[in-house]
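Predict the structure of Nidogen 1a.
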Amino acid sequence: MQRSPISLLTASRLTFHYPPQTYFCAAVKMPSRVLFSSLRRSALNCLCPGVGGMILLTLHEDFISVSVFWINDFSFSFQINTNGFVATKEPESELTYLGKMPPKFGMIAALQGDLHTSDGVGKVFFREDSSPDILRRAAEHINRAFPEDDEINPTHAVVVTWVDVTTHGLESRGDSGIKKRNTFQLVIASLETTSYAIVLYPRDGIKFSSMLVGDTNVIMHAGFSKGLVRGFFSSIKGPYYRTTTDDEQSVRALAEETNSGLRGVWVYEIGTSPFFSNVAPGEVPELPTEAPPQEDVDAYEESSAARRPLYPDRPVVAYPPYLQEQTEVHPVQFQPQNPEVVEVDDPIINVDVFSYNLGSCANNRNKCSKFGECRDYANGYCCHCISGFYGNGIQCVAEGKPQRVNGKVHGRVFVGRSPSPVEFANIDLHSYIVANEGRAYVAISDLPETVGPSLEPLVSISGVIGWAFALEHPGFKNGFSIIGGEFTRQAEVTFMPGNEKLNIRQEFKGIDEHDHLIVSTNLEGRVAEVPLGSTIKLDPYSEIYQYNNNLITSSSTRDYVVTLQDGSRETRRYQWRETISFNGCYHSETLRDMKPTQMLSVDHIFAIYDPAQRLIRFALTSKIGDINGGQPEQNPCLTGRHGCDTNAVCKVGEGATFTCQCAAGFSGDGRACYDNDECREDPQRCGPNAICNNQPGTFRCECEEGYQFGSDQRTCIKVDRPVDHCEAGTHTCSPHAQCSYAGGSSYVCTCLQGFTGDGRSCQDIDECQQSRCHSDAVCYNTEGSFTCQCRPGYSGDGFQCLPGRPKTRCEVHRENVLGVSGPRGPQPPIGAYIPTCDNNGQYEPMQCHGSTGHCWCVDQNGQEISGTRTGPGSRPMCIDHNTGLPPVGPRPRPDVDALTPGTHLLFAQSGRIEHVPLGGYDMKKNDAKPVLHLPEKVIIGVAYDCVEKMVYWTEITSPSISKANIEGGEPTSVISSGLESPEGIAIDHLGRTMFWTDSAKDHIEVASLDGSNRRVLINTDLVNPRAIIADPSNGNLYWADWNRKAPKIETSYMDGSNRRVLVRDNLGLPNGLTYDPHSSQLCWADAGTQKMECMDPGRGSRSTVLERIQYPFGMTAFGKNIYYTDWRRDAVIAVDRYASRESDEFQPQKRTRLYGIATAYAQCPAGQNYCSGNNGGCSHLCLATPNGRSCKCPDNAAQVGCVEREY
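Done. Here is the predicted structure for Nidogen 1a.
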């Protein structure tokens, strides 16, 4: 993070934005000394503002929020509370923690209780300091407390002092009725690798140790609490390291004892953010021989001759008194009815709080963007973007490349005169910016209709995005070019004439690993009401932006027209004021030469709220230029009518001439630009133990599993920490046991229901020995359960069996064909087809004509499946639709047994989905187990969504598509109508869509992952489509049709366009299909030719991986291996495709046919497509193509009001 000297004031005037809450006074002077050699109450005062950091204040009722930015790029924020503690997040109501410790939030409790300062005597002070003298004192305390450790030299410190604080309860009063008061101090000293808490209690500073909470006397607390820790299914309270007990003596002992070798001084190592995972106390509880107490400590300190060491064997430390400035925190007891921007004259506040980037590029080059360079200057260093990129050097984006902004919106908004606010939280904001046109599209989802229409006039919620990426007139710079992607924008909107006020705070947090700019937006206040059903028209407007040091300001008045449902119109107005604060680098000339004023021109404004989708959309075109207008916009680059590719930058020439140049990371003529695959060009560019992932216009380096980025954020180093064996899959629990993490590297194994043992070894319980079934039933023991089945001639559920059984459809069919029996048995008509029934009376999946020798597949009703008939001597491969009688007794529940993290294989086997964990590329067969039981179902296709950790499957017994979370949960039906025989299924995890084949309807269909927006993509020239694969990063779709007369493998774009046949020669029964994006290889398994083959779809080269395989059905690729299911071997087989050999085989205990198989990745494969952000700007289906996307409508488009577009 690049920092510069921070200027809080442009002159002697400071501007505060006060929210409608009680606020605090700040900036007073007081004498101060801290970390003194003699810890008596009169000596314990406060550190004062130095030159080491910047403190930002967010004002609240009884605490303040402080964000501290360190020179070495480390930062953290916390809340200082008058109740004697510092919190790592905004505290909840004190009713949730007073007398109810530990709290739900992270806390450093110096001495926590029901304290207050409202009587004007008690005060709370804080400051941040990196001065050498203060850091030296902190280092002495730390090194004295940990004498066996390496010497510690902190680089920054924050000091909080509670002076003369008292409580509301009677316990703080003495015999004379005078309130008792406590004084104590907390110092957080940090360096790059860890932090320390130093807590100081003066000998006469603790006057009371308990207080009343309600009617209960509660002992005060000191210690460290991590607060709630989020788990897989819920949040639990994290570690709580308490340094006192429920004995009042333990509180009084804080001023008399130590863990640092100095009375009243307590030192703890608390780690890095998040704190308090492993609190380590100081190691020196012994007290040295102290000097005699002085009656007048101030006089003692001012007399240099009187200073003496606290313990003889250590050097004397002199702490001279000094006067400096100090920030005080105390509540002001009134609340304004109409909060507004207040300007405060305050000469006390230092204009230059600290000097940033004092180092050189030699040690700080890694802090610049990978598309930036570091330059040394006389007073420090700065980062600059290289040619072809723009930004502040820390964050750089390619010129001309479209940008995406994502984030969350929170709000508490009153509408009109309503007395009740509309509240919303964590709703999505997505934006797509066509940079070479200055056009920004913004959508905010899930907005209640009670507030959505009234936010339509506030197009400037998205206006800051337009300013950041505005089209630049020559010589002028948009926001991102100047300050990058980390800044805070605060705005106040005043609606006229009602004087409704809305405060907007937006924190832009930089670019994430997907190259998306992240923003958090908070709306609070009141807006003028716009009735539902009205329309808004906003005229073009201009804003003048003023640039000064680290602050940018603008203001304007805007008119808009509201057309009501009755056709009447109202012209309304609001005033807009905003400030943008950021941290720049002033060593170079970039910010110094910044133009003091620029004008932002905004036109082509669009705003609409869709109540059906609870979605508000904004669109606007922004340009930045001279406040005097400058040259006319005749150049196509400035009008947006240039025709350059969306991934190209338009370069202004003389007059109306211009050129199109592809953005960095793309190649082409500027009219058409194509992504460069940097990872393929240089596979080793990320270094050892790292993986290179290509992205549009760029690439991203990721560390391999077991490694993490070092301090330079570029080199992958091995992770050395306690291992959660349950999560890592390295435990020794039985496959039939549950592994439970127990902290550190330990775990507990517990046998699953239906098994018995110690967890390391679990044996199946044979329920059949307990005579659980009816006397006329047969009991079948299974792993973890059992089934009961009535004997032949009986019917029932196995618990109750009655003589006789109604004839099945197949048996009736067979008897009708056979007719009446003659003296020699049944006499069927000559040449008639006689159906074959299984032991349960159901149709066998394959039927043959005894006279002609033809065979074909049938469904569960005995109807022939089109395209499956074979000639004499050949047999089709048919799917068994029958699962036998349903199991009874304690059969498995239809939910998911949670998988341990890591990469797994998921495969379908009749009525269940099983998994095999992968260790590298090896199948961990001993850890294989079923994860989903669906009795009476036949599951065919399996696919995995790595984003939401969902497994999707197709089922043909009651044709449907369903899903379930692999981390545990009930199955959910996604599509249950309009299907006949769904088989193959594929997921686009980027565009959030799914594709499937229906071999009865002979078509390929697409839908959103929730089952909405269904659309038939392909419905011609298909006979038996089965396997289907999506390649989201490249926008391609692949499928196989095993039609015996003309088998083929085809492809198209994901929108169904550009359909073509890839392979039609030398195919038999191409069942399995998979695509490996890393090698760009499409592979298939053929049960007819008994071969496994691969090809590059772009080049057409075809190669054989393996021959003489038997009956493959499904297949999936992971790394060097291909895994496929085989009907004849009832197994999952691993094939090393580079060595062209089988490397392993896994046979489940249940020996039945295996169907589809998929890879459940530990993390999503790298890549992006044009639909991965904001649904590509589409209203319904966004379907990627290699060079863009298509916005498609569902088949019921007439009902949903959809418009199709192509990009």
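The chain has a mean pLDDT of 79.
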